[in-house]
Each structure stands twice: as C-alpha cells, then as structure tokens.
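Note to self: keep these together.
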Amino acid sequence: MAIVELTIVPLGTGSTSISNYVADCHKILMMEKELKYQLTPMGTIIEGDLNRILETIKKMHEIPFKKGAMRVSTSIKIDDRRDQEGSMQQKLQSVEAKL
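Structure:
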C-alpha cells in the first residue's frame, strides 16, 4: 500500500485563492471508495493502491483546467513501502510512541 502526498496548484487564475479548486479536486477523491485520504492545510495525503492513486491524481490534475486555469503545477511525493504494511495512522502512531 502506498501513501502519497499531493499538492495541485492552478496558475494564472486571476486570484490568489484556490479553495474552490481544492474542493472540486476533493469531490473526485470522495468518489474513490478504495482510497483513504486526508486534507491538510498544505495538500492532501492519499493511501491505497499506487496505480489507483495515480489514476485518481490524473483526474484531479485536470480539474483546474476544466475550471479555466491555463497552467497547473502538481507535486507528488510517494512513500511505497513493500517490506511491511503501512498506513497514515501507523506512521503517526510510530512517531507519537517515540515522543
């Protein structure tokens, strides 16, 4: 199972606010029942099958274009651990146990 951190930024929209774009991207995630996700103030974290996540990110990347953006910058960070099962919750618990 992979954990992916994602940030999608529309450019050239005429406004510094992007919350409408973020909300529309999250509507795509809400339809993906196989994926877990967490919205953060600076991006989104998605957990699940890597191929499914990447397919979903492609759909999300298109949302700002559909809303009129002429340029979109998408940053993706992938944690794909294969020696053991991991999750967002497990990663947090591991750090909290050491505090």
